[in-house]
Amino acid sequence: MERDDERKIEALRKLIAEARSAVVFTGAGISTGSGIPDFRSPGGIWAKNRPIDFQQFLSSAEMRREAWRRKFAIDDATRGAKPNAAHRAVARLVETGTAAVVVTQNIDGLHGASGVPDDKLIELHGNGTYAACLDCGRRHELDEVRRVFEATGDPPDCRACGGFVKSATISFGQAMPVDAMERAHAAAEEADLFLALGSSLVVYPAAALPITAKRAGAALVIANREPTDFDPYADLVLRSDLVALFAPYAGAP
């Protein structure tokens, strides 16, 4: 390990040790170590399949059918993914009171699976481990939805009200959840440390949260494999693999 890397890791350790109300903000890079692909990378799923816009989903049964086909194909490809050491480290920071909240752009449910309580977890883009009716909000389990879809070939409708059922995630063109964004913004303003982990910080409005925290007085740490536009504003920038970087904070597997 180079001396500069050692210095940065020690600086991270010190910032975490001194934090009392940290916000952990995560993107796809924290889950690649669990076998979840970064859809935006070259050769990723989005390079092969243009995302289906929310209005397309609403207006076309064929687009709803295609959305579910892709959903189940992705689920098959990532089946068995489990939280890695970086997820467990984040959960440990919450458990010890160092982190007040975890804000994630991910939809894989791995932060919840790692032990982060629901009231400490803000999933800005929803959760892909279940589905919900767009009209009445009723939750639908994916196994049930898949049985119906594969038996009929038709996109599922809500068994309660007949509305469209969709993966409980935020699609392109779909409004961001107001409550989640307000909670995330409030947490960023109150943070003494903002850890941005595995995010390219290009998707707004979520990408503005690091600067919100910095302007409110928080120390800003960015750990991502590729440079981000916010690196010049960070107190500390790391290019280390997140699983290796945060394994010391993870505790027993």
UniProtKB/TrEMBL annotation:
The active site is at residue 125. Residues 2-253 form the Deacetylase sirtuin-type domain. It comes from the Bacteria. InterPro entries: DHS-like_NAD/FAD-binding_dom, NAD-dep_sirtuin_deacylases, Sirtuin, Ssirtuin_cat_dom. The keyword Zinc applies. It holds the Pfam family SIR2. Zn(2+) binds at residues 133, 136, 158, 161. PROSITE patterns: SIRTUIN. It is an enzyme of class 2 (transferase). Its EC number is 2.3.1.286. Keywords: Metal-binding, NAD, Transferase, Zinc. The keyword Zinc applies. PANTHER family: NAD-DEPENDENT PROTEIN DEACYLASE, NAD-DEPENDENT PROTEIN DEACYLASE SIRTUIN-5, MITOCHONDRIAL-RELATED. This is protein acetyllysine N-acetyltransferase. It comes from Chelatococcus sambhunathii.
